[in-house]
Design a protein that fits this description.
alpha/beta, Rossmann fold, about 50% helix, binds NADPH dihydro-nicotinamide-adenine-dinucleotide phosphate, NADP binding
Length: about 290
């Protein structure tokens, strides 16, 4: 059993604290607004009056606030207690914010681990939950067993920015899937169908498209986008024109599919009409091809 402090008792921090209590850990909790810890205290958690008191109580300090600005202000108020602690910051942020905070925390004599939570609060502590971690590896390894109370702990490297990078990369996939589904469901609804009736086919199609990821990955890593027997971009540009026209005809705004159409046309205009769709990635790097 390890003593662990949790700072931030919003929906996510509360779920994290409950998972630790379920796993039998001694837990100290702090939240800026009083009163959010009552159910946790009645389950055996200890209430800290200040962030400094919560940080002093445990070697492992888990933070889950709404943003980094709050984390920075809170930690600055408890600077003296940080030495010797392991700060596991599970607040969502950017890789740049994580790297800057890691440097500051480590300069206070503490170890910094960043976390990107790939779950919603009811999933915490279930097999469906996983969390990316990055930063100080020895500190992560020392506390991995405790952190696994939240879900599978996936370490992605010593760069503190790696966990938020993987987090936002996966959220990009979520947005893409959601956009595609909403566009498709709007078309079905606009012509009198139901989203529920259409959804089994949508799932079947999405699952078969997701199975193409490994082939796309090979093309992206090699930079060889030739469409050998596949679906070339010139054909896809024509198909996307039809998709946009059909959406308008059916009374649906094509706003969610227009950006991809524009990129595909750009790639064709650049002379890559015989390539496969993965080549569109070349238009996304702001500073030339990715590392
Ligand atoms: P909530 O809005 O439920 O809670 C926000 C928490 O942040 C509260 O405890 C709030 O304290 C605290 N807070 C905000 N500003 C400050 C500040 N300046 N100083 C101290 N405390 C502050 O959010 P969640 O718990 O849902 O989310 C927390 C983090 O978890 C976010 O970074 C979110 O992106 C991430 N996350 C959430 C998921 C979700 O589905 N909920 C999924 C994956 C990640 P107070 O009570 O005083 O307002």
């Amino acid at each position: 059993m390890t003593t662990i402090s949790i700072l931030g008792l919003g929906a996510m921090g509360t779920a994290l604290a409950n998972a630790l209590l379920d796993a039998g850990h001694a837990v100290t909790v702090w939240n800026r607004t009083p009163g959010k810890d009552e159910a946790l205290v009645s389950r055996g958690a200890r209430r800290a009056q200040t962030p400094a008191e919560a940080i002093a109580a445990s070697e492992l300090v888990v933070i889950c606030l709404v943003d980094y600005a709050g984390v920075e202000t809170m930690l600055a108020s408890a600077e003296k207690e940080l030495s010797g602690r392991v700060v596991a910051n599970l607040t969502t942020g950017t890789p740049k914010q994580a790297r800057a905070l890691a440097a500051w925390v480590e300069a206070q004599g503490a170890a910094y681990v960043d976390g990107g939570i790939m779950a919603v609060p009811p999933m915490i502590g279930t097999p469906a939950s996983f969390i990316f971690y990055s930063g100080n590896q020895p500190a992560f390894e020392r506390h991995k067993a405790a952190l696994e109370a939240f879900g599978d702990a996936v370490y992605v490297g010593p760069d503190a920015g790696a966990a938020p990078l993987n987090d936002i990369a996966l959220l990009g996939i979520l947005d893409g899937i959601l956009s595609g589904y909403l566009h498709a469901a709007a078309l079905i609804r606009a012509s009198g169908g139901t989203a529920e009736g259409f959804t089994p086919l949508a799932r079947r199609w999405a699952e078969s498209m997701i199975s193409l990821f490994p082939d796309l990955a090979k093309q992206i890593d090699s930079g060889d986008y030739r469409a050998e027997g596949g679906s070339n971009l010139a054909m896809q540009a024509a198909a996307m024109d039809q998709m946009v026209e059909a959406a308008r005809d059916e009374g649906v705004d094509p706003v969610l599919i227009e950006p991809m159409r524009a990129l595909i046309h750009q790639r064709v205009a650049d002379g890559f009409g015989t390539d496969d769709s993965a080549g569109v990635i070349e238009l996304l790097f702001l500073n030339g091809r990715g590392k």
